[in-house]
Write a structure and sequence with these properties.
Elements (H helix, E strand, L loop, with lengths): L1 E4 L7 H5 L5 E4 L10 H11 L1 E5 L2 H10 L5 E4 L6 H10 L1 H8 L6 E4 L1
Parallel strand pairs: 1-2, 1-3, 3-4, 4-5
Length: 110
């Protein structure tokens, strides 16, 4: 499973999860940090990435256009990078199952 972390998540998270996923990139390292949501969706679609975001805008676009790409939507208020890291670690099994799920395109993590 390949993950693309949206701008609203810390680039530091990529280092924590390199061992858990086939590939994990942050939009910043791909020079997409200033790109609009449509460009990020298209990059993810063409590269086979699942987008991880805290942004409802990407979810709205997903709802309109469908998947791929899949979206993991972290619906947690203000929290630290450490909190996001723990949340993802606690949900690794769910995330991997979601990656193999052909029927669902969005995973909401609270």
């Amino acid at each position: 499973m390949k993950l693309l972390l949206d701008q609203n998540l810390s680039p530091k998270l990529t280092a924590y999860f390199t061992h858990s996923f086939e590939e994990i990139k942050h939009v910043q390292e791909l020079n997409l940090d200033k790109a609009d949501d449509n460009s990020i969706l298209e990059f993810a679609r063409s590269g086979g990435f699942t987008i991880v975001t805290r942004d409802s805008d990407l979810n709205d676009l997903f709802s309109f256009f469908g998947f791929p790409p899949k979206v993991i939507w972290i619906r947690r208020g203000n929290c630290s990078t450490s909190d996001i890291r723990t949340l993802n670690e606690d949900n690794l099994d769910r995330i991997h199952l979601f990656g193999n799920d052909d029927e669902n395109g969005i995973l909401i993590i609270l």
